[in-house]
Amino acid sequence: MNALTFAIFGLGDWQARLWTGLNGLLGVAAVAYTGNKIFSRRVGIVAALVLGSSFWWAGMGHVNSLDMGLSGMMTLALCGLLVAQMSGANSKTERNAMLVCWAGMALATMSKGLIGFVLPGGYWLFTPW
Questions:
Q1: Distance CA 102, CA 125 (A)
Q2: For residue 58, what are the CA distances in angstroms to 14, 42, 81?
Q3: For 60-77, what is each residue's pLDDT tens digit?
Q4: Phi, psi of 11 (to 5 degrees)
Q5: DSSP assignment of 42-107
Q6: Alpha-carbon distance 59 to 3, whole Å?
Q7: Of 64, 84, 94, 128, whose CB count within 10 A is highest?
Q8: Rounded to two decimals, what is the model's pTM?
Q9: DSSP 39
């Protein structure tokens, strides 16, 4: 994705950090949407404010590394799973949210390797049913 931003916008500092910054914003937006969908609008806003004001999340959104891409995509996967498994979700919501979850897992795998599906898969494997 960094190569794509370089190809579109040219070489520079902000182009190098664009993907990590967008992942930070995506994570905050996903947490806000999930909190709003599962609990209430107030919970979604507070959760987004807490995540967005976290030192690590805000700091890593400014650093050009693979970590924020992984964190943003894993957040997307977790939020998709939470929305899909909420009580009262219809089949369309469940399907779309699981597609978001699987896309987040795939993009996390592409970002940093096997951890993108090993962590969610490990949770599924060791969860007592």
A1: 16
A2: 16, 21, 24
A3: 999 988 899 999 999 999
A4: -85, 140
A5: HHHHHHHHHHHT-HHHHHHTTS-SHHHHHHHHHHHHHHHHHHHTSTT--HHHHHHHHHHHHHHHHH
A6: 22
A7: 84
A8: 0.89
A9: T
